[in-house]
């Protein structure tokens, strides 16, 4: 059985109203335990910048290009996601050490499936660094490389949730009414089909923002005061998208809002609400069978006018329409939950998309996994520990020789290694300082452990390192110890850094001397004689030829 992982999903959708943050515990398959949810809104000025980003993105011809303000926007967007994670963890009473993965959607600024081009801005490496949690991002691109539309990705999560729906309600169709709506059809025989169904909230949002100065029609109140304009509705519903033999993924710009002369405010909102509902039923004609139940999630389920139209149109076909909440789910959280679930699947190499969902040629996985890098040298990366790393740590100190000067002086068990990692993870979450995992920069191989620890009883910061036996003799200890020394003083953590080595550990003594530390006192540690070393800021600045911060030095 696959190990359960705790993941956070981050979703910023086509409505561009904010960041949804949700937590799930899952094996990436049929087991899903849903956790807390938080929505963090964007401020109005940032929403305006996002709208401009959509215009800037129109010039993109290669998905790594960032014309106009997009480069700065990508960083700012990522930093807002990092802050959303911080707020979520505080809200949920959790720490970064409790989370295995983040699934990061980013913001879609361009989606041209016919050209095999999709762009979601968001810097996964920066998010990992800021949160201290591994991040899976860019989950759509691989699907397109195998001939898919790059969307929708949520159907496999709907399939996992559908196990909770009673058999007499099948076939089931999940409907996500976001900026763009999409459908997931699930049959009892394992059939899974998904595709975009048409405009969801985006036309209504654009209409009321332009003509009423508000970001959306709250609850469908404006629409409830108007009437459907049949000619305007038909203009949308007669679009070839609905009758084309091949389903394709939609971009926000594929359907444009009406002109101001087409309708007054409430009639325009009422007509677009009807279009949103009718588009779902019209696209459902392409499903393998008639659904018995429609489960509605996304912000559109809160628009009572859309829901009333949808219930009436589906009822004419003998189908029921239920909100996500009526089936025990959270319609606001579902898409963010899906991204958490997809991150776990991605990390396990499981398929995210299927021929029946995106038109991909075969089931494929996707996404890019990046781990947080706290410190980087020419050959090494220093990164926080993850669950499952205890085996590597135990192997590091598995023999009498490799455990002689560390811990309790005996080979480490898996349980002991796990307890040490738990302590280091907690210390890092609390202080931003601890022993961390040391990896090879070129291939990610485990090299050992290193870091800076705070010892409360001594009131001292101490540099620590231990290199795996297979990597001895290659200068890794000196390389990481020197980098940690520079990081410590550059960050102004304190003005004095210690080191310590058993008097018989000549290799470690040589490392501490090489990085400029001088011996101080000889002291017993756990009954063993140990030599202590130190370097202060003035000595470091002098050695690095850095102007001293101390005017009297």
UniProtKB/TrEMBL annotation:
Residues 380-547 form the N-acetyltransferase domain. Pathway: Amino-sugar metabolism; 1,6-anhydro-N-acetylmuramate degradation; Cell wall biogenesis; peptidoglycan recycling. Its EC number is 2.7.1.170. InterPro entries: Acyl_CoA_acyltransferase, Anhydro_N_Ac-Mur_kinase, ATPase_NBD, GNAT_dom. Keywords: ATP-binding, Carbohydrate metabolism, Kinase, Nucleotide-binding, Transferase. It catalyses: 1,6-anhydro-N-acetyl-beta-muramate + ATP + H2O = N-acetyl-D-muramate 6-phosphate + ADP + H(+). GO terms for molecular function: kinase activity. It comes from the Bacteria. ATP binds at residues 13-20. Belongs to the anhydro-N-acetylmuramic acid kinase family. Catalyzes the specific phosphorylation of 1,6-anhydro-N-acetylmuramic acid (anhMurNAc) with the simultaneous cleavage of the 1,6-anhydro ring, generating MurNAc-6-P. Is required for the utilization of anhMurNAc either imported from the medium or derived from its own cell wall murein, and thus plays a role in cell wall recycling. This is Anhydro-N-acetylmuramic acid kinase.
């Amino acid at each position: 059985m696959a190990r359960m992982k705790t993941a956070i999903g981050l979703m910023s959708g086509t409505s561009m109203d904010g960041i949804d943050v949700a937590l799930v515990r899952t094996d990436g398959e049929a087991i899903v335990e849903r956790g807390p949810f938080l929505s963090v809104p964007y401020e109005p000025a940032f929403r305006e910048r996002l709208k401009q980003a959509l215009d800037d993105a129109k010039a993109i011809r290669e998905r790594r290009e960032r014309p106009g303000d997009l480069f700065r926007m990508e960083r700012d967007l990522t930093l807002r996601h990092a802050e959303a994670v911080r707020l979520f963890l505080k809200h949920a009473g959790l720490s970064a050490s409790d989370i295995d993965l983040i699934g990061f959607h980013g913001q879609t600024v361009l989606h041209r499936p016919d050209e095999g081009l999709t762009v979601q801005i968001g810097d996964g490496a920066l998010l990992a660094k800021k949160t201290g949690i591994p991040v899976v991002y860019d989950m759509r691109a691989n699907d397109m490389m195998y001939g898919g539309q790059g969307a929708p990705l949520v159907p496999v999560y709907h399939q996992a949730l559908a196990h909770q729906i009673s058999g007499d309600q099948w076939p089931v169709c999940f409907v996500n009414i976001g900026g763009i709506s999409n459908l997931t059809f699930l049959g009892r025989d394992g059939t899974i089909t998904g595709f975009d169904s048409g405009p969801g909230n985006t036309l209504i949002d654009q209409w009321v923002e332009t003509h009423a100065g508000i970001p959306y029609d709250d609850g469908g109140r404006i629409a409830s005061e108007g009437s459907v304009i049949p000619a305007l509705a038909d203009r949308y519903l007669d679009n070839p998208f609905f009758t084309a033999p091949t389903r394709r993924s939609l971009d926000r710009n594929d359907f444009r809002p009406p002109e101001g002369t087409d309708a007054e405010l409430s009639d325009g909102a009422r007509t677009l609400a009807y279009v949103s509902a009718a588009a779902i039923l019209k696209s459902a004609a392409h499903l393998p069978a008639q659904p018995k139940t429609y489960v509605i999630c996304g912000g559109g389920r809160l628009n009572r006018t859309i829901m009333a139209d949808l219930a009436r149109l589906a009822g004419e076909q003998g189908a029921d329409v239920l909100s996500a909440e009526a089936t025990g789910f959270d319609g606001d959280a579902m898409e963010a939950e899906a991204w958490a679930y997809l991150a776990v699947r991605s990390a396990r190499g499981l398929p995210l998309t299927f021929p029946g969902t995106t038109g991909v040629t075969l089931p494929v996985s996707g996404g890019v996994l990046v781990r947080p890098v706290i410190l980087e040298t020419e050959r090494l990366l220093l990164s926080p520990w993850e669950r499952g790393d205890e085996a590597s740590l135990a192997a590091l100190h598995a023999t009498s020789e490799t455990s002689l000067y560390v811990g309790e002086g005996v080979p480490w068990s898996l349980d002991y290694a796990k307890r040490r990692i738990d302590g280091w993870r907690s210390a890092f979450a609390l202080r931003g300082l601890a022993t961390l995992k040391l990896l090879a920069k070129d291939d990610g191989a485990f090299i050992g452990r290193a870091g800076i620890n705070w010892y409360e009883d001594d009131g001292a910061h101490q540099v620590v390192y231990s290199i795996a036996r297979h990597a001895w003799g290659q200068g890794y200890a000196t390389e990481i110890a020197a980098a940690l020394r520079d990081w410590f003083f550059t960050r102004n953590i304190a003005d004095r850094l210690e080191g310590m080595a058993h008097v018989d550990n000549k290799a470690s003594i040589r490392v501490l001397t090489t990085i400029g530390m001088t011996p101080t006192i000889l002291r017993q540690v756990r009954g063993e004689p140990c030599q202590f070393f130190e370097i202060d800021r003035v000595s470091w600045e002098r050695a690095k030829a850095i102007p001293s911060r101390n005017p009297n030095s």
